[in-house]
Amino acid sequence: MTAEPLTGDFFRFADALTDDEREIVARVREFLAEEVAPVALEHWTKAEFPHHLIPGFAGLNIASLPYDGLDGPAARRQLIGFVSMEIAHTDPSLNSFFGIHNGLAMGSIDLCGSPEQRERWLPAMGRMEKIGAFGLTEPHGGSDVARGLETTARREGDEWVIDGEKRWIGNGTFADLVVIWARDVADDSVKGFVVEQDNPGMTTTKMENKIALRTVQNADIVLSGCRVPEADRLQEAHSFADTNKVLRRTRGGVAWGSTGTMMAAYELALAYAQEREQFGRPIAGFQLVQDLLVRMLGNITASLGMAVRLAEMQEAGEARDEHAALAKEFCTSRMRETVAAAREVVGGNGVVLDYGVGKFFADAEALYSFEGTRQINTLVVGRAITGQSAFV
Fold first, then answer.
1. Handedness of CA 61, 62, 63, 66 (dihedral sign)
2. Is the dihedral angle over the CA atoms 91, 16, 327, 105 positive or is it negative?
3. Which CATH architecture has domain 240-386?
4. How confident is the model at residue 249 (pLDDT cuts 50, 70, 90)?
5. Mean predicted lDDT score pLDDT of the chain
6. Where does the Acyl-CoA oxidase/dehydrogenase middle domain start and stop, copy by copy (predicted)?
7. Are strands 177-184 and 132-135 parallel, antiparallel or unpaired?
8. pLDDT per residue over 45-55, tens digit each?
9. Do the Cβ atoms of 300 and 335 come closer than 8 Å?
């Protein structure tokens, strides 16, 4: 069993995968088609998470792909990206759940934990026996969280006491482990802590009334006198620069997820245009519709090319903050244009969920904003190319 390139992979970037890698992608695609696609819309509509799917995801052995030694050698970044694209192509919400777990949470422990901490947590997380979340964003701190982190940590003997609030924490309502970033009151440095869900000092509340990624269980988190042992402080997290190592890695993942999202919207719009008849023939034969479809395909192809090249640079250890920032900014912007064009092709039917496009149209809004807004990522790239910082 091997996976053929998706319809939207017009330049056949997936051909660069090895036979073994294509086998993995094919297994993921089969699981998504048989288990995820039939229930995705129902859970999105109800804003409920399909917990029954976690064992199936675990059986794919893909959570451990980025990490050396968990299930063999670490996979190539290209394969990791194509897996993410496949999941987003079926359901961006579940791709976000997966990226939070194996990207942000596991990545924090991998990059900022001691060898003992990596051994303690990562194997179980790689098997998806424990699910992770990542607590950085705050009610008053989004784009400026690097400077304005309000959550504090103070040391008392062999424990740390954490106080503060977090917001928009994906997986936060049910994750077994939440990586909490806080400012040390003693030296003003940013430190990371692994807080277990049953900690009496941490309260999680599900955020309601979202219009995007509704299946993702985002939480408001309150930490009040939350006591965490020194053994649960990430030993190699000493400043926000260490936090940013995690974000640099996962911003590339947003580029892949955005590409999968727009590819799905394009394929749905293409199929609709070939079947929908107006004025006595399929609308796919009208020039204005073909113009929209070709523009969508161009956006997808450019974004996928950028994502693939970024993965190659990550593999070679050459990717910097500005490379990940440009990929995130560009791909999510092109995604927003593409899902809007897909909605236009589908016409009035695009504002109901029955035809598929509406869900991707809505989910794109969340992808456009998280992991740094377009404007913030623009300033990261602008600083790199001009040598001048435009941050306030």
1. positive
2. positive
3. Up-down Bundle (1.20)
4. confident
5. 95
6. 133-225
7. parallel
8. 999 999 999 99
9. no
Classify residue 356 by its DSSP letter. Answer: S
**3-class secondary-structure state, position 320:** coil
The closest alpha carbon to 232, from 78, 114, 97, belongs to 114
Residue 142 scores a pLDDT above 80:
no
Find out whether 182 and 233 touch, Cβ atoms under 8 Å.
no
Q: Domain residue spans in the chain?
A: 13-126, 132-232, 240-386
Domain 13-126 has CATH 1.10.540.10: yes
- According to the model, what pLDDT value does residue 71 have? 83
**pLDDT tens digit string along 180-197?**
999 999 999 999 999 999
Tell me the sheet residues that pair with 227: 161
Read out DSSP for 74-95?
PPPHHHHHHHHHHHHHH-HHHH
CATH class of 132-232: mainly beta
Rounded Cα gap, residues 218 and 206, in angstroms: 6
Question: Residue 5 has which token pair?
Answer: 């390139």
* Cα distance between residue 169 and residue 101, in whole Å: 11
